[in-house]
């Protein structure tokens, strides 16, 4: 949803809407933007605003929505052009083109993708405010910027991935015998409205944590990040907008009128927080010299950070349609294995890509490395790390990559990825054959293809 | 010790005969009832944007109210609620101290909360438990359990608290704490309850996650109560808290709008949690919407009174204890009640409010203006008005020791000095 809105605005930006939208910016700190690193973007905004009076409050309410979109997209474009194409691992997707096709085909099956809950959220005064303030961060290294950029850029088929899967599995399961026929009348493209809301809530939660993941520890601040004041401000915005998305998810959840679903999704939020917390503490061992996690722990932690939300949302979608425990279990299983497969696949991308000349980098917590460490043992791994270091004590990733590739680490990760893909396929087989089910099958098999 | 103006108030109150106090208070509350109606309409309309044509009317009401305050001020400065309230609590036995009365239901509060915060990772567990060390005032759970017991008696239900009511007391403290952790990051505060804030010790990233986790645990406990209406009522709180925080980011150009903005923010950031928790415990025991409304109104009014007193103390409490202003709100760029009232007498404050006291010397200058004005007195008066409204609502419940303790607690909220 978010992606669509934003890309829509990029189109409308040159037109009237864009102009009016920019006008609303008059209200807030225009002078601030004007003297901010002489950006032409900001100059344009200032020129446009000149002709509107700040007291025109009607303008504000009516156009704040459009303004949000245009500011975010402007911001994102600028951020991207000024800083090159550093890909964000959060958004990287397995076998890009294949994946895109599978997901966009799947979107067609579920009809209109969402219930517009996130639209309402994005158009709120609160987030319009954030969008305006986020402009102050241009030129800094606050992660909120790249998260915002991610909404526009290569996220197209990842940001909504969870929502689409929840909708597909809802459709694949169909109406249940336990639900009354009256409810079935409300179905659109074979999906209950409550299930559409759930899909949206899943996306809101996911997005909220993308934003909260980008909180910066101010004690680690360095001059190259940009002014400390701006970084503080970026944190403030990130905390608030993440909280706002989360709060909307909470109220949306309550509106589903099912306390079991509230319970499931709340526990998924708890899982997600724990998973991200683990990510954080793993990342601090940047030199890779401390004991890494073993494969089993890696799987547990990855489930928390990347799988629990989808697995529990799939289960909740079954609960909303009053499907029995067995369907709930299978839906959970599909979500769980698919997310693990998906994560393994994206972790494997740097290792399977044959592209030369690209600036290569990967996390030392990526699945193939975790496997590799466990296979060669801690001691040899430390030696290999030392050997892969350049004179300036920087890691030479291409060297390290070759080392990992030379042993079984990579192939073990590929095997595990295929295993999870197959498990997901297996889970979905119990649902009646349908267009939606084949889409879910396609997604599962794409995940385990390289 | 009370700030200087409190003692001044006490002196004043002896100069009034009770009859005239009642007379004047009634006159004001007649007007201000309109204020409360307009500024705090039904729950549903809170989330939607105010219609543009409705706004001027609201402003007018607030204008009336504030100007009436100005007019009445010289006669009204004094009366504290205490003398009249104690007189009218009708129970022969002495009113029990609310803290003692609520104690039996709160002994296991923090242990129960820690059980809800089930995490495998030790460090995260430690962070989540950090503020549940028993050093907080736990004023929200106290109000919730007293209200729950008062409501149970009102609803002819003898015996212990319902498990769900007990859970709501716990959840109210969890939601409050989660929002504290996030607010501290937003405000960059380094001390809370006598120790370093979580982000000060472990960094912002972990602090935010700890807050998120406490919130998810609260939401989980809430769902387990199994009542969807209760879930809806308390989810609203979470939304209000965030919206209130957003409102704090902006200030309004127009003075009357600014006052409305301030009261609305105060409701969302402080009162909504108390009001909706009270409402939630009422839903569990009584099907009557009128009773839910009594519980909600009590919580709302006592919550706003609580925050107004807090805003006053930000100017007065540091002054008497340390000889210099704490003025923490000013330093954060926030214009609270005392400043907004002072701005009516000293228009110079207007520019400072708009630039959020960001220029050199703004905080000191603003502080001096506030103390020269009667902003502190007027804010306290407003707090007393809300306190009185709270008492008026809770009186509608059948008499019980817990009900009287809530009345007593409201008085204590108004007279507290820290």
TrEMBL record, chain A:
One Gene Ontology term from the biological process aspect of the record: ubiquinone biosynthetic process
InterPro entries the UniProt entry points to: Isoprenoid_synthase_dom_sf, Polyprenyl_synt
UniProt-listed Pfam families: polyprenyl_synt (PF00348)
GO CC annotations, alphabetized: mitochondrion; transferase complex
Superkingdom, natural source: Eukaryota
Keywords tagged on the record: Transferase
Molecular function per GO: prenyltransferase activity
Stated family: Belongs to the FPP/GGPP synthase family.
Protein name as it appears in the record: Prenyl (Decaprenyl) diphosphate synthase, subunit 2
TrEMBL record, chain B:
GO BP terms, alphabetized: isoprenoid biosynthetic process; ubiquinone biosynthetic process
Catalytic activity reported: 7 isopentenyl diphosphate + (2E,6E)-farnesyl diphosphate = all-trans-decaprenyl diphosphate + 7 diphosphate; 6 isopentenyl diphosphate + (2E,6E)-farnesyl diphosphate = all-trans-nonaprenyl diphosphate + 6 diphosphate
Broad EC category: transferase
Pathway(s) where this gene product acts: Cofactor biosynthesis; ubiquinone biosynthesis
Bilayer-spanning residue ranges: none
InterPro entries: Isoprenoid_synthase_dom_sf, Polyprenyl_synt, Polyprenyl_synt_CS
Location in or out of the cell: Mitochondrion
Cofactor(s) recorded in Swiss-Prot or TrEMBL: Mg(2+)
Gene Ontology CC terms, in alphabetical order: heterotetrameric polyprenyl diphosphate synthase complex
The enzyme's E.C. designation: 2.5.1.91
GO molecular function, a single term: metal ion binding
Keywords: Isoprene biosynthesis, Lipid metabolism, Magnesium, Metal-binding, Mitochondrion, Transferase
Presence of the UniProt keyword Zinc-finger in the record: no
Subunit record text: Heterotetramer composed of 2 PDSS1/DPS1 and 2 PDSS2/DLP1 subunits.
Listed PANTHER family: ALL TRANS-POLYPRENYL-DIPHOSPHATE SYNTHASE PDSS1 (PTHR12001:SF69), GERANYLGERANYL PYROPHOSPHATE SYNTHASE (PTHR12001)
Family: Belongs to the FPP/GGPP synthase family.
Role description: Heterotetrameric enzyme that catalyzes the condensation of farnesyl diphosphate (FPP), which acts as a primer, and isopentenyl diphosphate (IPP) to produce prenyl diphosphates of varying chain lengths and participates in the determination of the side chain of ubiquinone. Supplies nona and decaprenyl diphosphate, the precursors for the side chain of the isoprenoid quinones ubiquinone-9 (Q9)and ubiquinone-10 (Q10) respectively. The enzyme adds isopentenyl diphosphate molecules sequentially to farnesyl diphosphate with trans stereochemistry.
Stated name of the protein: All trans-polyprenyl-diphosphate synthase PDSS1
Annotated source species: Pleuronectes platessa (European plaice)
